[in-house]
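Hi Y.,

Following your request, here is the sequence exactly as I used it, all 220 residues.
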Amino acid sequence: MKSAVIVFPGSNCDRDAQTALRQMTGAEPAMVWHKDGKLPDKLDLIVLPGGFSYGDYLRSGAMAAASPIGDAIRAHAAKGGYVLAICNGFQVATELGLLPGALLRNASLNFACRPQSLAIASNSSAFTAGYKDQREVSFPIAHHDGNYFADTATLDRLEGDGRVAFRYIGNPNGSARDIAGVLSENGRVLGLMPHPERAMAGQEGGNDGVKLFESLMAAA
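Below is the corresponding structure, written out as tokens. Let me know if you'd prefer a different format.
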């Protein structure tokens, strides 16, 4: 699987994503600076990493979505390429128009950083098929704006189309319908607020993220 990680000013989980991809694929992902404006040829997967792009100035993800690389990311998704948008990357993906909805401040107005239990809402997507009959995972969270919001019609459509991938157990953010991760209409873009790349059999994050990357590799 040929992959790339997009690096914005303020990204701080790009190296975590790089390490996870190297571990899983055995190949070095391309680290693409946002101002490059183009992507390597024949990519299977783009990761939009977590962090605080542009210091979350203006609105989380909004300035990153206006970066020169934005059109290339949209084109990759439009032709069926996979995109894994994690935490701040999820915010960027909504601003790019790759996913519906928006990410608001946590209900507590506090930064949340801890392991988080999630229910697997769909195990039929390219990102979750490897979980098979597993019903729960634990991924670390580290965010201030992790409260997923969309209007009722959009939420109904996501639910009806099976595009909710993960739900919070206990819903620490006040997220609409407990949503922690959503899929694009073609199922090839996943926006996920928790961090699967930090759950790769390390000492702190567990290993539940491994199957997500294995699922992607099988699909790609």
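Residues 14-25 form the longest helix (12 residues).

Thanks again,
Q.
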